[in-house]
Amino acid sequence: MIPAAFDYQRVESADAAIAALTEAGDEAKLLAGGHSLLPLMKLRLAAPTMLIDVGRVTDLSYIREDGDQLAIGALTRHRDVEISDLVQSQAPILAHATGHVGDPQVRHRGTIGGSIAHADPASDLPAVLLALGGSLKAKGPNGEREIAATDFFTGFLENDLADDEMITEIRVPKVPDAGWSFQKFNRRAQDWAIVGCAVVANGTTGVGLVNMGVTPVRATAVEEALAGGASGPDAAAQAGEGVDPPGDLNASSEFRKHLARVLVGRALSEIG
User: Fold this and answer.
1) Helix, strand, coil content of the chain in percent (nearest 5)
2) pLDDT-derived band of residue 17, with 50, 70 and 90 as boundaries?
3) In Å, how far from its chain's centre is CA 227?
4) Where are the domains positioned within the chain?
5) What CATH class has 7-53?
6) Cα–Cα dist 18/166, whole Å
7) Is 249 in contact with 224 (CB distance < 8 Å)?
8) Residue 95 has pLDDT above 70, yes or no
9) Could you give the CA distance from residue 28 to residue 7 in angstroms, rounded to a whole number?
């Protein structure tokens, strides 16, 4: 299908993007790699009247250390995250999972901020961010704020950003010695996961689930069971508790709960 008509504006800085968002109002959308937004526009599931192209805002493309955290600019390409020595050494699950995003063409154009802002429950990176206990920095005309990943995803393809805000940075703790595992079940290579999970064990254990609700979710029942001393298999048996996965042509809700138990069990076994 053909998208509805829209105006287009290219900006060179985050401040210019925020000014354009403020002027255009809630009918504007930011365009970075375009791999999430453009398909929605073609299906007429999104019909912004203004696209603000931030693809050339180079000052939001970086990966650096900031104390006990990694700071990743929102417009950093997936491929740059995947091959970063710093990410591989300090948050290896993020580098690994980013290597599973789409195909090489997508990873060379798509951005980490765009993927997370899209808030798709079937996307891999939000689950990793939840498991790591990460956060996001957002900037608007009233200044900058930090949003915990657990508070960011508010509904299906919805997030906590105001209409005049944009993500500027992704922040994750440095966990070089953590145990971790990323598990994903799909029917074909490069498909969206029917179910996936990200598990990070670093004193406490964080478990993020893929495609197990209308938003990216944590498996809090699993986390609580592990904190209470449960064995890996017993904790994994709780992966379907407190979540409401969708049913569709690929899998029923009950089958997704079964897959979650299996994948979390595999992850915990791999971590050991």
Assistant:
1) 35, 25, 35
2) very high
3) 25
4) 7-53, 58-173, 180-271
5) alpha beta
6) 7
7) no
8) yes
9) 9
Per the CB < 8 A criterion, the answer to whether 123 and 103 are in contact is no
Please give the CATH architecture assigned to the domain spanning 58-173.
2-Layer Sandwich (3.30)
What is the rounded distance in angstroms from the CA atom of residue 35 to the CA atom of residue 190?
A: 14
The SS3 assignment for 216 reads coil
Gap between the Cα atoms of 193 and 34, Å rounded: 20
The backbone torsions φ and ψ at residue 35, rounded to the nearest 5 degrees and listed phi first, read -75, -15
Sequence-separated (6 or more) residues with CB below 8 Å from residue 189: none
Second-level CATH architecture of 180-271: 2-Layer Sandwich (3.30)
Find the angle CA(184)-CA(188)-CA(191) to the nearest 5 degrees: 65
* pTM above threshold 0.90: yes
Confidence band, pLDDT 50/70/90 cuts, at residue 191: confident
Residue type, 105: Q
